[in-house]
Design goal:
It holds the Pfam family adh_short_C2. The chain is α/β, with parallel strands linked by helices. The chain has helices at about 15-25, 40-45, 65-75, 100-125, 150-170, 190-195, 200-215, 225-235, and strands spanning about 5-10, 30-35, 55, 80-85, 135, 175-180, 245-250. Helix 1 crosses helix 8 (about 225-235), helix 3 runs parallel beside helix 4 and helix 4 packs parallel to helix 5. The longest helix is centred in the middle third of the chain and has 26 residues, at about 100-125. The relative contact order is 0.14. Bound molecules: nicotinamide-adenine-dinucleotide. Nicotinamide-adenine-dinucleotide (NAD) binds near residues 11, 18 and 182.
């Protein structure tokens, strides 16, 4: 029960990594405000929770939505202790020599500005609260090219730099800021954003699951709970000496392929 008495806000809470983080934080005692554009998914999560989880609708591409989310969570919860800025999707998939200015802007807004505004509007409610912690979802895409589409990879790299500058800006208020870099995790992000010619969305998901299980050193697909466990650690007082850094949870994907011998 590391989060007993704590108030947490999680974005992208209706599915995948966000949902696993909501259940982990609530399971260890937090009162969690679960935010998403998916109202059905978010409400279902809250209804199954005996009051430990409240759903608040929020589109993270709209700064006013994020401001309203943080204000409402702080009002109902009496402040905010933990924020997990997690919502995103794959963004525009075009390579750099084809991407449109609109596609670039949309991806930066969805993947990077959303996190900046999450910090911006949560921080005033977190100042001076003991153990205040912000965790942002970056990606292996932030660390190397080729894992994800161009604009998404650039935006996720921006999330890492944002994490560092926010950590320095907010240290004076006792707020820690860290990032998580998931590898390939089996969630809906692939079925919702991957465009694979001549293959169904189910086939796209199977391709990713198969790649995760056979190429990376840890021979299984990553699960949302693998990331939620790391998020809970970063959000907890056990990580009280960590700020402005990232945790890589990728089954060894970024160190290279597993050898056969
Ligand atoms: P997911 O599709 O399962 O969940 C994403 C959630 O975000 C959904 O509930 C969706 O409704 C919500 N969402 C999307 N756009 C939103 C918006 N504008 N406002 C509010 N909510 C919105 O995907 P996931 O894999 O759990 O993704 C969570 C985070 O993890 C994302 O930031 C993603 O970029 C990152 N990530 C995922 C992987 C992976 O392999 N799954 C790897 C690295 C990073």
């Amino acid at each position: 029960m590391r989060f007993a008495g704590k108030v947490a806000v999680v974005t992208g809470a209706a599915s995948g990594i966000g949902k696993a983080a909501v259940l982990k934080l609530a399971g260890e005692g937090a009162h969690v405000f679960a935010a998403d554009i998916d109202e059905a998914g978010g409400k279902a999560l809250a209804e199954a929770s005996n009051g430990k989880i409240e759903f608040l609708r929020c589109d993270v591409t709209v700064a006013a939505d994020i401001e309203a989310l943080m204000n409402e969570a702080a009002k109902r919860g009496g402040g905010i202790d933990i924020v997990f800025n997690n919502a995103a999707a794959g963004g525009d998939r075009a390579p750099i020599d084809e991407i449109s200015p609109e596609g670039w802007d949309w991806t930066m807004n969805l993947v990077l500005k959303s996190v900046a505004m999450g910090i911006r509007y949560a921080a005033p409610h977190m100042k001076g609260r003991k153990g205040a912690s912000i965790v942002n979802t970056a990606s292996v895409a932030a660390l190397g090219a080729g894992y994800s589409p161009t604009a998404y990879a650039v935006a996720k790299a921006g999330v890492l730099q944002l994490t560092k500058v926010a950590a320095t800006d907010l240290a004076q208020y006792g707020i820690r800021v860290n990032a998580i870099c998931p590898g390939f995790i089996n969630t809906n992000i692939f079925t919702s954003t991957l465009e694979v010619p001549d293959a169904s969305k189910d086939a796209a998901k199977a391709i990713i699951a198969d790649m995760s299980a056979h190429a990376q050193p840890v021979a299984r697909g990553g699960q949302p709970e693998d990331i939620a466990n790391a998020v809970a650690y970063l959000a907890s007082d056990e990580a009280s000496f960590m700020t402005g850094t990232h945790m890589l949870v990728d089954g060894g994907l970024t160190i290279g392929q597993r050898h056969a011998w």
